[in-house]
């Protein structure tokens, strides 16, 4: 362990030194003052950098392979030899423990949330009720009172839209809500 740690430290130092050399040579080459030997050295340093990166990646992959192999062996040892462990079960129905049937009838389930019918049963019941009402009393179109109410509502809407004071008040309130988030206020008096 100590030798591998020491090797990693050495590689890290070499990597930093290599990056510093690359940075200085790159600026020198980009300025256009480098000769052919310096450009060649820049390319060689880049190749060395990528070689070091590939060695690090290979080492990382080797470590990952060891972890994955150990994981597979753990899975195989913990898995039962005769296939999947989960069996398909039918859903359980709720039941209520009581002393006897009479007590269950008197006190009920003990809580109000026990459903007495499904949603489909309820829907069917409502549909039957609507059909029975529809046969006994046909629907009549609404009288003229609804038309008068609609006209009054439309007139009130027009008045509200024209009211500059109410409009300004609504805009001010909206601006205030933008600048004062919810919960803003006296935070010192919090029980």
Which features does this protein show?
191 residues; mainly alpha
Could you tell me the number of beta strands? Answer: 0
Average pLDDT rating:
80
Largest sheet: none
- Report the uncertain regions: none
Q: Helix amount, in percent?
A: 55-70%
Structural class of the secondary structure composition?
mainly alpha
Describe what this molecule looks like in 3D.
InterPro entries: TAP42/TAP46-like_sf, TAP46-like. Residues 72-91, 128-191 are annotated as: Disordered. Belongs to the IGBP1/TAP42 family. One of its GO terms (molecular function) is protein phosphatase 2A binding. The protein has 191 residues and is mostly helical. Helix content is 69%, strand content 0%. The radius of gyration is 41 Å and the shape is flat.
Short summary of the structure?
Belongs to the IGBP1/TAP42 family. This protein is mostly helical and 191 residues long.
């Amino acid at each position: 362990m100590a030798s591998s740690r020491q090797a990693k430290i050495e590689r890290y130092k070499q990597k930093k030194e290599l990056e510093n050399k690359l940075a200085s040579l790159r600026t020198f080459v980009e300025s256009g003052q480098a000769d052919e030997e310096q450009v060649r050295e820049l390319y060689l340093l880049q190749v060395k950098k990528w070689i070091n990166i590939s060695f690090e990646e290979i080492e990382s992959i080797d470590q990952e392979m060891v972890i994955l192999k150990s994981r597979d062996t753990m899975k195989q040892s913990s898995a039962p030899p005769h296939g999947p462990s989960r069996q398909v079960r039918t859903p359980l129905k709720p039941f209520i423990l009581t002393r006897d049937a009479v007590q269950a009838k008197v006190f009920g389930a003990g809580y109000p949330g026990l459903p007495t019918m499904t949603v489909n049963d309820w829907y069917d019941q409502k549909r039957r009720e609507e059909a029975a009402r529809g046969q006994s009393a046909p629907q009549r179109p609404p009288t003229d009172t609804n038309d008068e109410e609609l006209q009054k509502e439309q007139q009130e809407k027009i008045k509200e839209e024209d009211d500059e004071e109410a409009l300004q008040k609504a805009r001010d309130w909206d601006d205030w809500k933008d600048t004062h988030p919810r919960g803003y206020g006296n935070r010192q008096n919090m029980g």
